[in-house]
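Q: What structure does this chain adopt?
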Amino acid sequence: MITRALVIKLGLGQLISWGTAYYLIGNFGTLIAQHHGWSSSVVYAGFSASLLTMAVVSPFCGRMIDRHGGRIIMTLGSCLNALGCLILAFADQQVLHFIGWIILGLAMRATLYDAAFATLARIGGRDARRAMGQITLFGGLASTVFWPLGHLIQSEFGITIALVAYAGFALLTVPMYAAIPDARHGAPSGTTLNSTDDADNTDDQGLATHQRLCGFLYAVIVTLLNVVNAAMSAHMIAILIGLGLTTAAAINAASLRGIGQSAARAAETLFGKRIAPASLTLFATALLPLCFVLAFWGDQFALAAMTFTLLYGAANGVLTITRGTLPLMIFGNARYGHQVGRLLVPGFILSALAPSLYERAIAHWGPTGALWLSIALLTCAFGAAMWLYLLLRPQSPETRPANIA
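A:
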């Protein structure tokens, strides 16, 4: 059973884990390069190495949570998070810098949403949907809290102390994740796409094909969103500055991303129960390319930049929830962690390249080129979401695949 206390502990853990690991690059990437006299491409390559690490360990991490629950994996991830921040704080050689990022990659896969969602699915089954939305309310504030907080600590005490402080914050999540119960929601259940009644093999094969196609489209959507999210986490502040905003204004505008995420997730938690995950995904992916268009006016109107980051955060906030609930709709909680872990691998691999590719795009075409690239990728994500919606929408008995209830 998923209790309110568990949701709060996991939610606070998500806020800190995202803020101290994934969003670290957006605040400190350029400063780390300047501190050591390195090229900024070295620092972003380190972040890319962390995302590749997430891809390598993703299926294994999902299987471990399926078998043993999230307590051990997520607690270990908290310790690795702190260790990675400490290594980055004192790494004066590039090889140590990369080791720190690789350790942070292990930590992120073991502590961020995908691990938390698998943990909740194991404990609550299909009833985990509401809890998944609730913990993202906390996690959505990570950039809003840690970008300004990190900037303040670094401004007062320097980059080394700021990274040590991040390690301390990461350790605060150890007791939160250590309190996760070792429980399983009955026998692993299938979903409407995964349920059969021992009909003939032809029906089973048709059902499996339909399920594989849905899983493929889910992977495409998550992959494209991961690429843009990784790029924006690393370069959003720099893009806004390149559009003409001051550093302080860019940080303040970028911080609205977290407010938009949490507001949208609160609305989904309160009012989205009757809306299917596929419908929410379709709506949010339609909004994303449109909000990026607003950024083109960021150099003339600060309000446009603020609206861009707010709406981007809102759409991304909804999609974070459906990232956890769509697999429940497609696969159920049967081997949820393993199924999702495999489908996330392409997203981790390609998003590992995103910061470096966007850095080159900004260097060659400026911030507007990065915005056009994002619009193109997000339009493709919308097309995949439309296809998935058509596959998952309720159908009449005459048109739906055999054995799908």
